[in-house]
Amino acid sequence: MKRLPVLIVLILLTAEGIGTLDSFSPAQEGRLRYFPETGHYVKGAFLDYFEGKGGEEIFGYPITEEFQEDGLLVQYFQRARLLLTGSPGKRGSGSGEVKVAPLGELLGHRSPPFEPTYHFPYRYYPQTGHALSFAFLDYYEARGGEEVFGYPITEPFWERGLIVQYFQRARMEWHPDKKCVQLGLLGEEYFEARGLDPTLRAPVEPTVGEATPIPQGSERGYMRVRGTKGERLQLREGPGFAFVTVYLLPEDALVKVIGGPVEADGYRWWQLTYEGLEGWSAGAWLQPLAEGETPP
To answer: What is the pTM of this model?
Structure first.
C-alpha cells in the first residue's frame, strides 16, 4: 500500500456538500419498505436503523432479504451487512440491537498502526493507530462516526484509481469527478467472498397493493424535513450540489413533492414546493409523513 503524498491529499480531499445525518428514531414494529431497485424488502428494526443512519447513501440498497447466518438474523446491503444482536432467531421486526458488521476487518484490510507526521490538521485514533483528515474526517463526523463506520484501519491510499481509506465497517472513496466522498460496496464484496448462496440475492415480488412510503416519479405527495440537527436543509435550483441554494428549509417543515426522483452526487433528489418557493432537496433529509398524519 502506498501512502499518499501530502500535497495530493491537500488538493483532492476537499469536503464539498457534507450534510448532517438523520437522527435515529425508536423502532416501530411491523414497518416494511420495498426497494424496486434491487427487489428486496427492509423491515422492522433493520428499516428503522437503515432510515435513521443515512439510508441508501450509507448502506446502499438491500441485496438480500433478512436471513439466519451464524446464529443471528442478518441482512446484506450493497455497502454493509446489518445484524440483529441479543435476539437470535427473532425477525427484524422484533427486539434486539442492530449493528453494522465490521466488513473492513473481515475482508482483511487492516494495516499496521501508523504514527502520522502530517503538516495539516488531522484527528488520530489510538484505538487502531490511524488518522483522519479533510473530506474523510468531515464525512465520518457528519454521517455517524464510530457507530456506523468504526475506527479507521488504514491511512488514505490509491486503490483502483481512487483515493480510499478503510474503516472497521466501511471503505470511503474520494471521487474527484464528483468532488465527493462515496462508500465502497463492501456488502457485495463480502457476500461474494463468503461464497453465500447466490439465490439469496434473487429479487422478491412486492405485495399486491402495498403502498410505497416515498412518492415515486412525479406523483404528488408530502414529506417532512428530518435530521438536519438545526442546520436546515438546502432547497436548490436543481438536483445536485452544483445548483444555487434558494432557501434553507427548517427542521420539521412540511414540503410538497412535485417531481423526482433524480440521482445526482450520490443522493436521490426530490422537486419540492414550500411556502411559494420551488426547488430540489436531497432525500436523505426527507421522511414520509408519520402514520395517521394527514397532509393539508
So the answer is: 0.62
- Please answer whether residues 75 and 81 qualify as being in contact, where contact means their C-beta atoms are separated by less than 8 angstroms: yes
25-39, 77-91, 166-180: which range is least confident on average? Answer: 25-39
In the chain, domain spans: 1-213, 221-288
What span, in angstroms and rounded, lies between the C-alpha atoms of 206 and 35? 9
Contact 103, 97 (CB under 8 A): no
Q: Which helix (H) or strand (E) holds 250?
A: none
Task: Give the phi and the psi of residue 10 in degrees, each rounded to 5.
Answer: -60, -40
pLDDT, averaged across the chain: 81
Best CA proximity match to 281, nearest among 270, 296, 266: 270
What are the φ/ψ torsions at residue 62 (nearest 5 degrees)? -65, 140
Q: Which residues contact 202 (CB under 8 A, 6 or more apart)?
A: 39
Give the CA-trace dihedral at 122, 141, 103, 130, to 10 degrees: 10
Q: Tell whether the model's pLDDT for residue 5 goes beyond 80.
A: no
Reported as a single tens digit per residue, the pLDDT across 231-244 is 889 999 988 888 88
Asked if 132 contacts 142 with a C-beta cutoff of 8 angstroms, the reply is: no
| CATH for the 221-288 domain, from 2.30.30.40, 1.10.1660.10, 3.40.228.10, 2.40.10.340 | 2.30.30.40
105: left (phi over 0), alpha (psi -120 to 50) or beta: alpha
